[in-house]
C-alpha cells in the first residue's frame, strides 16, 4: 500500500535550480517588470503608436458592430467551432492589402513561424537560415525533420556558396531570413535573396515582423509572387496581437492541415481580429505616423553622428537602433542609469545576443520628439564617453 502521508515533491529539481544559479552568476537572470508610465518610451515595439490610438479603437468598434452575430470568444480552434465570418473576411482583406493569393491568421508571430517552418520542411529537405534569425525561426527549424545550416548574417556570398553546394543533394531547399532583424535592426537585401532563390530553385520564407510599418507600409509585397511565404505580425507596428502567413492558396490548405500551432489552439477572438483589421485600414488611410517615424529615424541617425556615437551603433535605417557595449554587467548598469533619468531603454543580454555583443536597444516611435531623442543621446554620451 502506498504511503499517503508523504507529501509530493513539488520543489524545483536540483538540475533546474543550478541553471537559475548559473544564469544569475552570468548577470543574465531575467525578471518581469511593469513599464513605468513616466519614462519616455525607447523600448516598446509600438512603432506607430497604434496601441494608444483612439481612432483605431473607434474603427474597431464599428467593425465589430458590422458583425452583430459574432460571439465574443472564438470558442474553439479554427477547424472546429472557432472559425467565423469576420476572420475569413479579414484574411481576404489581407490578401488585397499585401497583394498575395492567400493569408492564414495565427495567434502570434511565434506560432506562425513555428507552425510554418516545422510543417513544410521535410526529412529530405534543407533549410538555410541567417545566423541571427529569431528564436521562433530556430524553434521551427528544430521541430522540423529537415537538415539545417546557418549562413553568415546578411552575407549573401556565403548563402550563394551554400546554395551551389547543396542544390543537387536535397529535394527542396528553404531559405529563411528576417526582413528587419529584431536585435540589430539592419535589413536583409530581399531583392538579391529573391534572385538567388530563383536561380537555385530555392523557396524563400521571409519574416517581416519588424519591417511592415517601419521601412514599408506593405513590406515586400512587390516580391510576393517570388516569395514562398511571408510572415507578418500585428503585435509590432499595428499595436495589437497576432500574425498571418501570406502565400498561395495551396500553402494555406497545407497549413490548415499540417501546422500544429494553427490546428491545436483556440482561434483569435473577434475583438482581436477587429482591432487588427482597423489598424490596417488606419495605416492605409493615414500615412502620417509612418512618415513621422521615418523622420525620427533619420533624426536619430544624425544625432548619433553629431554626438560621435556612430562607432557604438549598428548601422540601421529601421526603427531598431542597437548600441553595442559588451558585458551584461556594464550594459545593465547603463540601462539602469538611463531609466533613473526617465528613459525606458532596455538592456539586451547574452545569451539572447552573443557574448561581447550585449547592447542597449533603442526602439523609435512616431510619437518620439526631437527633444527626447537629443536628451537620451546626451545622457548616453555622458555614460559612454565622458565618464
Keywords summarizing the entry:
387 residues; alpha/beta; three-stranded antiparallel sheet; 2 domains; globular; seven-stranded mixed sheet; Aspartate Aminotransferase, domain 2; Aspartate Aminotransferase, domain 1; 41% helix
Helix proportion: 40-55%
Shape: globular
**Number of helical segments with 4 or more residues:** 13
| Most strands sheet | 7 strands, mixed
Mean pLDDT: 95
How much of the residues is beta strand, in percent? 5-15%
What is the count of β-strands? 12
Which structural class best describes the helix and strand composition? alpha/beta
Main CATH class of the largest domain: Alpha Beta
Strand order of the largest sheet: 2-8-7-6-5-3-4
User: What is the domain total for the residues?
Assistant: 2
Query: What is the end-to-end distance?
Result: 70 Å
Can you walk me through this structure?
The chain has a seven-stranded mixed beta sheet with strand order 2-8-7-6-5-3-4, sandwiched between helices. A three-stranded antiparallel beta sheet has the order 9-12-11, covered by helices on one side. The chain has 387 residues and is α/β, with parallel strands linked by helices. It has 13 helices and twelve strands. The protein is 41% helix and 14% strand. Strand 3 (126-130), helix 5 and strand 4 form a beta-alpha-beta unit. The model has no long low-confidence stretch (mean pLDDT 95). It has helices at residues 14-25, 54-65, 85-98, 109-120, 135-143, 156-166, 190-200, 249-258, 260-263, 270-285, 288-306, 328-340, 370-386, and strands at 40-41, 102-106, 126-130, 147-151, 173-178, 203-207, 229-233, 243-247, 320-324, 343-344, 346-348, 359-363. The longest helix is centred in the last third of the chain and has 19 residues, at 288-306. The protein starts with 13 loop residues before the first helix and ends with a helix. The chain has two domains: 54-285, Aspartate Aminotransferase, domain 2; 287-386, Aspartate Aminotransferase, domain 1 (Alpha-Beta Complex).
